[in-house]
């Protein structure tokens, strides 16, 4: 019989969503224990049976979508609630940077190019129109005939996502939280007497017990929901490919990310190389997705047509899954029908840029602290489970 690991909150999924939330909750629990006991509770909690446990199916954290992003945070990107969460996330990361050895964020503008109408449609408080001549000044590799309108978001930043994941991992363990990798949660049941109920979850070789489970399983979140008897959100994982290519004429290190308003491509400097993506949105099953040579070659041809950078070869390519709910907004909050089951899923293409704000919101709901950042209703999982 396998021994059971008991905790207050079991977080399933070790991507940016699960890690940022687990760290936030563990830090708050440690702080409240510390103030309750008047002692240095965080250190004493290490290895205790309570607190937060994060379980990840893969041998390493961030193996799936969270290690495959373009690492850009764009306040003008997405619907208003996403833009709101992005601005809040930037503020929270900037506050955290004060305690970090090096910054997580670095300036990198976002330049949108294309035809007049789709560029105009993306205008927002963070995206202002610029003349094509100004756009060419910022991105001289663009061929002038490739676009007729442009918009610029100067508040956009590059994000060192590895450093951000490390920050959350260290914050979680410093607060006494525990991380278990290589364990896929496969089965669950609700046990205990009324008022003292808890989940028993079985993974590959381990068992977990917790009154509360957080579903941060990315592309697998609907599958995890079924394991816990919850109705799915109707999540769809969409493929998105990226590649790092060698070029004849490297972009300026301070060059913006350039994106086509028609969603045919985007690119940005990656050292002396260039990161490119076809911006595709192709439905997939939940899987360890892989790039297709034909897609990457078609993208190389397109980028060579609209720019003068001169791609000479593909250094590496990858594909990740951007998982969306039917309305494209994340699902964050208690399941409306299954007690002790909390959703943290459907971050789509905004998982990093909304991460700290969503972790803040989710921790407030989970710990019943009444914290509100204006997105609770819009993200409620109840909207997809009528
Ligand atoms: C090419 C590309 C570019 C992108 N660019 C950006 C960008 O510039 N900015 C931005 O903000 N976002 C971007 N994104 C989106 C962002 O990467 C995602 O929104 C984010 O990584 C999702 O994080 P997650 O934690 O929800 O999912 P994941 O990172 O996939 O984590 C979920 C984890 O759950 C685990 N899991 C699943 N089932 C179980 C189980 N039963 N038991 C235990 N563990 C389980 C999985 O193994 C996985 O590690 C991009 C995505 C792609 C693909």
Automatic annotation (TrEMBL):
<dbReference type="InterPro" id="IPR006076">
    <property type="entry name" value="FAD-dep_OxRdtase"/>
</dbReference>
<feature type="domain" description="FAD dependent oxidoreductase">
    <location>
        <begin position="8"/>
        <end position="363"/>
    </location>
</feature>
<dbReference type="Pfam" id="PF01266">
    <property type="entry name" value="DAO"/>
</dbReference>
<dbReference type="InterPro" id="IPR036188">
    <property type="entry name" value="FAD/NAD-bd_sf"/>
</dbReference>
<protein>
    <submittedName>
        <fullName>FAD-binding oxidoreductase</fullName>
    </submittedName>
</protein>
<keyword id="KW-0560">Oxidoreductase</keyword>
